[in-house]
Every structure is written in structure tokens, then in C-alpha cells.
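Title: Prediction job returns without error message
Component: structure pipeline
Severity: low
Priority: P3
Assignee: unassigned

Description:
Job completed but the reporter wants confirmation the result is attached to the right record. Sequence as submitted:
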Amino acid sequence: MNMKPIRYIKENFGKIPFCNEKPDTAPHLGKFCFPVCWRCFALITSILITYLVAHVWLNMIFPLWISFVMICPTVIDGIAQYIFGILSNNRRRCITGIISGIGITMTILHIPQYF
């Protein structure tokens, strides 16, 4: 990304995901490419759903250690891709994004207990 951010967004919106710039890793609607990959899409969606269901509707929180364990698959998959060059498919990206989104939400919901 050697151009200015606004110009970059204008020229690439709907063509590539901005998180990893690989169109084959993003959901598509016709020829439109979503601006985030499958993992980010699943992560964002699961954060919103987990917050609404677990916190607002059921008023429950997982133990903090379970929340951290749920974030680990995404970290492990990212390390495997970056260091070892192991490619991740879209199904794995989506599954790790969902699990990690739940873990991140539950971790964030623990913050008020410490203040």
C-alpha cells in the first residue's frame, strides 16, 4: 500500500479485503468482494452475536481462562501461516474467527470486574 489511505480505499473497495488483501479469502456477493476476509467477518459477527446473546439476553460470562483458550486457535493458525507457511482454507478461517470472537467478547466482559 504505497498510496494514500483514502485513495487506496476508493480504488480497492469491493475488489479486495483490506485485512489481508487476498480476494480468494473473502466472501463475495456476485462480483463484490467484502472488505474483510472470512476470519474477520466471522470474528466481527460472533462478537456482536455473543454480546447480544450472552451478555444482554442471558447475562452470562465464561470463566476468564476459557475465554483465553478460545482465542488460541486463531493465534495458532496465524502463527502457522506466518512462520511455517501453512495455508489456511476459508472454512478454518471462519471457524477460528467465530471461536475467537466469542473468546474476545467474554474476555472484554470480564473487564468491569476489575474496576
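Comment from assignee: result matches the submitted record. The chain has a mean pLDDT of 90.
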